[in-house]
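re: that complex we talked abt at group meeting.

here r the seqs, copy pasted straight from the sheet so there may be weird spacing, ignore it
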Amino acid sequence: MSVAQFLVALIAIFLAAKLFGELAERLGQPAVLGELIGGIVVGASGLGVVDAHDPTIHLLSELGVLLLLFLIGLETDLQKLMAVGGSAVSVAIVGVALPFVGGIAFGQLLGLPTLVAVFLGASLTATSVGITARVLSDLGHLQDDESQVVLGAAVVDDVIGLVILTILSTVAGGGSLSALGIAKTVLVAFGFVLAAIVIGSWLAPSLIRLIERLDVARGLFFGAILFAFALAALAVQIGSAPIIGAFAAGLVLARTNKREQIEREVHDLAHFFIPIFFVVVGAAVDLRSLNPLESEPRRYLLIGLGLTAIGVVAKVLAGFAALRRGLKRLRIGVAMVPRGEVGLIFAQIGLTAGLLNAGLYSAVALMVMLTTFLTPILLRRMLPKGRKTELHGVSDYVVDAPE
Amino acid sequence: MSVAQFLVALIAIFLAAKLFGELAERLGQPAVLGELIGGIVVGASGLGVVDAHDPTIHLLSELGVLLLLFLIGLETDLQKLMAVGGSAVSVAIVGVALPFVGGIAFGQLLGLPTLVAVFLGASLTATSVGITARVLSDLGHLQDDESQVVLGAAVVDDVIGLVILTILSTVAGGGSLSALGIAKTVLVAFGFVLAAIVIGSWLAPSLIRLIERLDVARGLFFGAILFAFALAALAVQIGSAPIIGAFAAGLVLARTNKREQIEREVHDLAHFFIPIFFVVVGAAVDLRSLNPLESEPRRYLLIGLGLTAIGVVAKVLAGFAALRRGLKRLRIGVAMVPRGEVGLIFAQIGLTAGLLNAGLYSAVALMVMLTTFLTPILLRRMLPKGRKTELHGVSDYVVDAPE
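got the structure back, here u go
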C-alpha cells in the first residue's frame, strides 16, 4: 500500500465512523452500530476503499481493539468483577457449551461430516468482548452489575474459545490430542490472566514510582501504553489473545492511584484507533457471497440464518445461568450474543484446513455479522437511557456535546 | 508481520525514543538526536527488532512526519513566513544549486559516468524539513526569524527536490525530457502549495463552522486530521510529497480562530506517531556496509565522507544567500544541512535503475546520516538556551517537566 492509498483508507475510515456513528446516535442507537454500517459502506461490499485484509489496516485495527480493552480494563473494578465472578464463570461455561452442542447438532442435521460440524459449533462459542463492551459503554451502562457479569463472562469465554481453537488447530493440522495436552492448554490460558493480574498488581506501583522518579516527558502516557502492549504481546507469546493481555493491563493499572490520569492521557490516542477496529469489522463483510437470488449462495444464506438463530438462543439461555440473585438475566444473555473475530478465526482455520468451503465460511461470517448488529439494537431497547459519566475513557462515546 | 511482532516493534520504538531522547536532553542535546541514536540501537545495525523497511512500520513513520509537519504548519505564521519569503527562496535556490554542482564535480573527479555523478549531486540537494524543524523546535527556536527562513527554504527545497526527482526518474527510466515537460512539473509542484494555501484559507473557516454546526463528538479533532490527511493525499496525487500537503494544511488552519484548540487536540496523537518517524530513520541505518576494516566498504566510506563535506559546506554557504539584513546567516546555513528521506529516495531510484551500486548507495546513506546527526549538535552550540513556549504543539518537546 502506498502512502497515498493509506491516507485515503484512513480518511474513508474516519469519515465513515464519524458520519454513520453520529447518524446512529441521532436515531437513538449506539455509535458502534453506525461505525459497523459505515464499514460496510466503505469496505468490500460497498465502495471498496478500505481493504480489511491489508496487513497495515489489520494491525491498526488490532491496536484499536487492544486499546479499547485496555480502557475497559481501566474502568473495571477488579473487586466488583470478582464479586460477580461465580455468575460470570457459569454464564461463560453454559454460553460456550450450549452453542457448541447446538452447532454440532445443526451440522449433523445438514448431513455434514462430524469434524465440519464441530468447527461450526466452535465458531458459535466465543463472545466478542470488544463489541459487547463497546455497546454497553456507548449506552452508558458499563458499570451495571449485569455488565460486570457480561464482561467477566466474555473474557472467560474468550479464553475458553482460545483453548478450543488450540485443540481444533491441532486436530485440523492432523496432530493428535492427549488429555495432558488439553489440560496444559487450559492451565496456560487461565494461568496467564491470573499471573498477569497478580504479578502486575505487585509490579505496577513500583513501575509508576520509577516513571515518576525518572521524570521523563509524558512518562505516564508512554509507561501505560508500553505496559499494555507488553502484556498483550506476552499473552500472544503464551498462546492467548492480545486483547486478554491488554484487558489485564487495564485491570492492574485501575488499582493504582494514577488510574484517572492514565485514562485521560490515553484517551485521545485510543479514540483515534478504536473506530478503525469497528469500521474494519464492517469492511470485512462481503454481502455478495450471500446473494439470495442465486441458488448456491441462498443455501449458505439459510445455513447462516440457522447458525444465527442457534447462536442467539443459546447465548440468551446462558444468561439465565447467572447465579447471583437480583440480576436481570435476559440482559446478560442478550449482551453475550455478539460473536466477533474469534468466530471468524475459527472459520478461517477451517477454511484453510479444507474442512469448510467458501459457502460455509460465508455462513459463519453472516452469523458473526448478524449477532454483532442485532445486539446494539436489542440492548438499546432493553436498557434505560444511560447516565453521562465523568470518566475520560470509553464512556466518552455517550457524551453528545463536543469537548 | 504478526500482531505480536508489531507490538514488540512498537515497544522497542517507544523505549528507544524515550530512553535515548531523555538521555540526549540530560546531556544538553535535542531529544531528536537521542531518538535517532535509539533507532540505530534497535534497528538494522543493532538489535534488529525494528525493521525500517516493513510496510506497516514505514507507513506509521510517514504518518509521524506528516503530523509533525502539520503541527509545524500550525505554529507557523504565514505572514511572518512571507515576510522572509525572498530570503527563503534565494537560500533554497543556492542551497540546491551548490551541492548539485558540487556533487556532479565530485562524481566526475572519481571517474564516474555523468549520469551517476548527476544522481550523486541530486541526492545532495534536498534539506530534510522534518529533521530541521524538529531540531529548531527541540531547542525552542522555531519562532526566530532565521528559523522562518530555514522553514520556508526547506519547503521550497523539498519542492525543487521533487522536481529534480521527477526529471531524473524519467531519465533513469529511459524516457525523454522536453522543456515543456520540465516547466509543467515545476508549475504543478509550486502551484499545488499556492493553490492549497489560497483555496484552503478560503475553505477552512466554512469547514470549521460546518463542524461546529454538526456538533459531532470530537469533530474538530477529526476534522483537522482529515483536512491534513486529505491535503497530504492530494499532494501525492499531484506529484508532490505528503509532508508538503500536511504543512500547507497546518498553515491554513493556523489562520483560523481554532488554531490553539486544534494544536491541543492533535497533540497527543502527534506525539505518539512523531517518535516513530525519527526512530525509524535511525533504524534504517546499516553501519555494517561502511566497515572501515574492509577495503571495498572503506572506499565507499571515504566517498560518503566526501559527499558529507560537500553537502555541509554547500548548504552553509547557501545560508549566506539570505537577502534580509540582520539575519544570522551562519545559523541559517547550518540549519539547512540535514538531508533526509528525499536524499535516500534519490539514491534508491538510482540503485533500482542500476546507476548506483550498493556501495554508492551506502555512501549516500552515510551522508544523509552524518548531516542529520551533525545538525542538532552544531545548532545546539550556536543557539542560546531556548525559551519554554506555552503552545501545545511540537514545542512541547523542550518542556522538561512532565505534564
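couple things i noticed - Residues 3-50+75-397 of chain A form a domain with the Na+/H+ antiporter like fold fold (CATH 1.20.1530.20). The CA atoms of residues 128 and 340 of chain A lie 4 Å apart.
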